[in-house]
Amino acid sequence: MSCQRVVFDPVHRALFVADVHMGKAATFRSLGVPVPAGTTQDNLDRLSAAIAAFQPGSLYFLGDLLHAKAAHSPELLGKLHAWRMQHADIAMTLIKGNHDSKAGDPPENLNISIVAEPFRLGGFALCHHPQNVPAAFALAGHEHPVVVLNGKGRSRARLPCFYLKPNQLILPSFGEFTGGYEVIPKTGEVVFPVV
């Protein structure tokens, strides 16, 4: 687990990231909702930083790479293609999530393999939706977990977190413009805030 909101497995030289939601802000803007621009490039820059830090041989997107059909705009796909060419030596796989089904598959020229969940990698089951998978440790996304930390007085911090449950780890949303679901760990569960 990393403060970059990714997980790296040195045995498989694999980097895992969940819920990038490329094109979400553009989708909202196309509907007339005033939201900030620049989130696509910011997400790509942060992905590049994680790649530089861990030097993976493969990158697995745990669902929801693209947010909606509006993500297939020439501008967004152009940025995504340029980024992919910078990392052409890394094998990339998308475990299809609920938004990917609505958005449509990434273009073939991005050279991103697409698989269904659960996808086995050694002792891992790579998923979008959190689930128990027999004889495997599941890595998943979908829920965008956050934890609220209360300080003195009225101070509070709402932070993305990794949510560890028995036999599964739910990753925080990688995308900046995604919101989050507050989790309250039960006995035997742990949260790791991203700070």
Explain how this protein is built:
This protein has helices spanning 24-30, 39-54, 74-86, 98-103; strands at 7-9, 14-17, 58-61, 91-95, 112-115, 119-121, 124-126, 137-140, 145-150, 156-165, 168-170, 181-182, 190-193. The chain is globular. With 195 residues, it is an alpha/beta fold. It contains four helices and 13 strands. Helix 2 packs parallel to helix 3 (74-86). The model has no long low-confidence stretch (mean pLDDT 87). The two termini are 12 Å apart.
Task: Furnish the topology, listing elements before pairings.
Layout: E1 7-9, E2 14-17, H1 24-30, H2 39-54, E3 58-61, H3 74-86, E4 91-95, H4 98-103, E5 112-115, E6 119-121, E7 124-126, E8 137-140, E9 145-150, E10 156-165, E11 168-170, E12 181-182, E13 190-193
Parallel strand pairs: 2-3, 3-4, 4-5, 7-8, 8-11, 9-12
Antiparallel strand pairs: 1-2, 6-7, 9-10, 10-11, 10-13
Helix pairs in contact: 2-3
Number of domains: 1
Spans of at least 5 consecutive residues with low confidence: none
Proportion in β-strands: 25-35%
| Biggest beta sheet attributes | 8 strands, mixed
Averaged pLDDT, please? 87
- Indicate the CATH class: Alpha Beta
Helix count equals 4
Number of strands: 13
Range of helix content? 10-25%
Order of helices and strands: EEHHEHEHEEEEEEEEE
How large is the radius of gyration? 16 Å
In whole angstroms, the N-to-C terminal distance is: 12 Å
CATH architecture call: 4-Layer Sandwich
